[in-house]
Amino acid sequence: MNSKQSGLKPFIALILSTNIPKVALGFGLLSGIITTLSGLVVPLLTKNLVDGFSAESLSKPLIIAIGITFIIQAILRGASIYLLTAVGQKVVASLRDKMWIKLIRLPVKYFDKTSSGQMVSRIVNDTAIVRDVVAQHFPESISGVFSIVGAVTLLLIMDWKMTLIMLITFPLIIGIMIPLGRKMTKISRGLQDETAIFTGNSQQTLGEIRLMKVSTAEETEEKKGLAGIHKLLVYGLKEARIYALIAPLMYFVVMLVIVSIIAYGGVRVASGEMTTGTLVAFLLYLFQIIAPLTTLTMFFTQLQKAKGATERIIDILDEPIETGQTGMDKNIASKTLYVKNVSFSYDENEPIIKDVSFSASPGEMIALAGPSGGGKTTIFGLIERFYEPTSGEIKIGDIPIQKITMKAWRSQIGYVSQESSMMAGTIRENLTYGLDEAETISDAQLWEVAKMSYADQFIKQFPNGLDTEVGERGVKLSGGQRQRIAIARAFLRDPKILMMDEATASLDSQSEKIVQKALFKLMSGRTTFIIAHRLSTIVDADQILFVENGEITGRGTHQELTETHQLYHSFAKQQLT
Description:
Number of strands: 10
């Protein structure tokens, strides 16, 4: 789908791309048609009743016919509304399924430029607008179209002159709605964008509430939040003005038609050209047109809003996802990882990594050292395939990692970072997070990896043990405890490649010793990459790569770099003597 299309084509294409329950849609539309047809019979029966009104004319068959018509109409209308609404809800659920599946498979670089709050707004707020159109306004408008077409057809048969008087107002209504609709599309697009920005800012502020408090930034965030709310208010008032114009204009047109028909019909009844029953039936049909016409007007207005939401949704669905064509050789542990002439930049004019090459043999420990901002974490991101190299390639054995599926590649990588990210939930859920066989992993296995990471010591102290809630992002655990959970998680996955990014940098000395012991256990027999500012943690590395300004300016063992690399020698002198 192309988000640059104009008009309603993108919206229709988006809806058709979902799993539409065709049987329910068919029955819903059929019920709506029958409801409309049964409703169209009532004015005709009323006409016969009025024209021949007397005590004797109140025959049981006529009364029964009117009653049965009302009952059938009520039952079928209820069935039609439910079925069409259910279709709408399922369509939007399918749309949200597609968006969610797409979002969690987008590459990291997409999330670097788009806040998570904005994406949440797209999947919740924008789809809610589409849902209202499809689940609420669309079913009503379908019934309305049948009602209008049927009523106008019968009115033309009954009295074409009066019908033409009524139809003259249709171009007037269309002339009013088209410019207002265009204005509504523009307003809606702005409102959805501001809603996404406000949601993103709010989520970020509340997610970093401790940083805000410790920085005494309440007033700053208050101003930012109130400014966002004011922008939403401005757009909301613009939207309200559109509705304020539509309602009275429609009321004026409707009242004008009703008064004109009554006046003209009254003259014709008085002259004998029309019976009273025909005039009553005509007015009943007129009301069967006016109510659906109002519904269609609202549907048209909401459709303009949905066009703006559709553009944003399609933009997400059109984003390319992470790729990979094949599985992975089970013997990865025996293969060397090659990084060959790799360069990378977030923007074309700002290279971050420049022609980097190195290799890591199975079981080797490769350390990345150097000043902050040199590109060490970016190299990690390239190996993990968070980003794709601008040039050069990364291979495992003779296979480029781009040809391996993301799941197969990342399942072989154990990652322990300085922050030790955790999900809200229990310790058990965090240990097994992402594992296909999570439900079959026994407590004995979990306690085993907890013991290997020295995490069993503190887990046993919790009353609920493995089922202890850790809080949002693990806030109920200390930094050292979160690190040991992360190491236990890595043990459980038994990765062939281990990556550690400043894994002990933020810990106190006591926690660092415990975590370091666990890390040495985890590193045994695995190809290990380490980013470290503390050189004491990497003096035994098989190879140290010194990274400055995106380039490797030195490589070798600790002893070799101390003797040959001036800046590394300076670092070592400051930290180790």
